[in-house]
Amino acid sequence: MADEATPAGGHPPNFVSIKAQYNGDVRRFAVDSDTSSFQQLCSKLRSVYNMTNEELVVKWIDEEGDPCTMSTDLELWEALRLFKTNKDQVFRIIVTATMSRTLSIKNSFKRKPAEAAKPSVQILEPNNLHNPAASPMKRTDTINRVGGIRRVKVHKVNGHSFRATHFHQPTICTHCRGVIWGLLKQGYQCSTCRVVIHKRCHKFIVTKCLAIDKSGGDNDSVALAPSAPLSHTFKDHNYMSPTFCAHCGSLLVGLFRQGKKCGGCGINIHRRCEKRVHAECNPNRKIAKKGAPMPIGGASQVPALQSGSHSSSPASPAGHSRPGSAHSDGSDPSNRLSTISTGTFVYNGIMKNATTIDRDPSRHHSSIDEYNLIKVLGRGSYAKVMLAERKNNHDGTLYAIKIIKKERIMQDEDIDWVRTEKHVFQNADHPFLVRMYECFQTEARLFFVMEYVNGGDLMFHMQRERRLPEASARFYAAEIALALHFLHGRGIIYRDLKLDNVLLLADGHIKLADYGMCKEGVHYGQSTNTFCGTPNYIAPEVLKEMDYGHSVDWWALGILLFEMMVGRSPFEAKSEDELFEAILEDEVFIPTTLSRDASAVIKAFLVKDPANRLGCKAENSIADIQKHVFFSPLDWTRLTDRTLPPPFKPEVGTAMDTSNFDAEFTAEKVALTPDDPSSLDNVDQGEFEGFSYINMSLMGDEEREA
């Protein structure tokens, strides 16, 4: 559809020209940059696109072409400020609309569950492939790139469900009584009882969540006193100076009787918070303010912190173990803080001083200035990947450098995901996994220097070929299965298998890339429950918010096999919620053009019950897959040794040939915008301490020289 016409005569100086895109429909309109709020922008978008009450996700395209999510007035105003600073002509935004995912998932529980062992597959005759009655879901003839999704991270501590929250006014931490500074999502707030706390203080909270108290569950909180606690005696109170609520941390506003004060312990609260605050009025509660860490999950009591020492350093690890925040059920019982005499934090045996970027004087860490950036190879929600070469090395080695903005991952609480990606890179010593040469950082960005795989990804080749012969799909699926089995054996779930992440070498073998959604520490028999993945590939157990293990990777491999041999996704819909319903309830329609063996392996991988899914019945899952009749033509020994000839070799010209990558990316301008000093104020550099790393087994002697 053509753009909406701009009114004649242009706009007043304070108006900004908006170019919005929604489902391919591009419209133009103007907003007042001085008075517009985020809600007004959403209302305008609903009006322009004739929407009703859909939930909108609005992303601003910054000067580097990266999509930046906006959800508050402050984020909109900051985007408009940068827009004016850069003197851009058009303020570009991308809009998506969806219903509540939570409502969709809850509704799925009301449906009658399918039989556990029943495959979610139905054979579809060729003449019914486009029959709406036989296949009610929307079908397309092509496969397109779709980004992964992650549910908002929840930190479970003592019954509280803490989420990163943006506060629109000065707010006080209910633990240390300090001001919660910063922009964007400055601190944590419990979604149940609304208590507010610093990110660094959330592990120290002593009181149980009010909902847990009322239900009588969760007995792992600290006993504040052996005697029965007294009850608060709240009375209306007049405050002569600015005072903050001891529960939600926000200011008590008004001219008189602004809040209530307890005659026993002296705490001040809003009237609206009286029903949420704990009934215990006990002077011993003040012990918590001295920094006594709380035992979680029955752990033994650890020594108290020095008074005030915990208020200057965040309690987030930067070492080699990832906390349980990627688990939506919270921290591991062993992940607790203790102190030493110097006041440095120790987290699982790793000392950290969370104030400076790591600098190891014993080795040389590279910088981006040592590389020539050549082409943009790809772009995701959080990062871009560029082709590069070292300036001081003339052996012809090329690298793919993944560049991530620190501010972006700080906004979305994704620091742990970056740490995990680094750890997986350090363990990715397998011929079918992309390896990392080194990683380093600046004040504004993180850099992963990886192997350059010049054959492009399977998505690129699938969009050209439409579908692959069964022999080719078998070969690629087998190599992917070996890579997944290697990760599973090291307690790693991949969780983002898709065509985009399967790269082809010049010799035709594959390598899995992008470990940003991996989960560590999940061995056979263990599970996690984070909601994440690419929508078309998410397994039913993830959508049902059940605990899951390696089974989700084998489901995704079944989806991938279907896409390679059929040329489309088995589950498609007009919206994300309809897609999730289809995955949970619908059967997969397999064309009869596929062989009996190909149909059988898809059925085996796409069983909705993970207990009966191929690859999930035993610890040695790869053996069951190797024995399946579909894979019987393969010599697995030669495949493992990479001596089995691949079915296809991509055309690669010169060393710097990027013809196997989307022109949408390679045509982009190769540049890094200068760092914005104001944005650096939002980055806690201590969170990235210890990030720099060199893979000594890959880096040559010349590359390691200072």
TrEMBL record:
Superkingdom in the source lineage: Eukaryota
Residues in Phorbol-ester/DAG-type domain copies: 159-209, 231-281
Residues annotated as binding Ca(2+): 294
PROSITE patterns linked: AGC_KINASE_CTER (PS51285), PB1 (PS51745), PROTEIN_KINASE_ATP (PS00107), PROTEIN_KINASE_DOM (PS50011), PROTEIN_KINASE_ST (PS00108), ZF_DAG_PE_1 (PS00479), ZF_DAG_PE_2 (PS50081)
GO terms for MF: ATP binding; diacylglycerol-dependent serine/threonine kinase activity; zinc ion binding
Domain AGC-kinase C-terminal span(s) in chain numbering: 632-703
SUPFAM superfamilies, per database record: CAD & PB1 domains, Cysteine-rich domain, Protein kinase-like (PK-like)
Cofactor comment text: Binds 3 Ca(2+) ions per subunit. The ions are bound to the C2 domain.
EC code: 2.7.11.13
Span list, region Disordered: 288-337
Keywords: ATP-binding, Calcium, Kinase, Metal-binding, Nucleotide-binding, Phosphoprotein, Repeat, Serine/threonine-protein kinase, Transferase, Zinc, Zinc-finger
Residues bound to ATP: 406
Known cofactor(s): Ca(2+)
UniProt xrefs under InterPro entries: AGC-kinase_C, C1-like_sf, DAG/PE-bd, Kinase-like_dom_sf, PB1-like, PB1_dom, PKC_DAG/PE, Pkinase_C
Pfam families, alphabetized: C1_1, PB1, Pkinase, Pkinase_C
Protein name in the entry: protein kinase C
Organism of origin: Capsaspora owczarzaki (strain ATCC 30864)
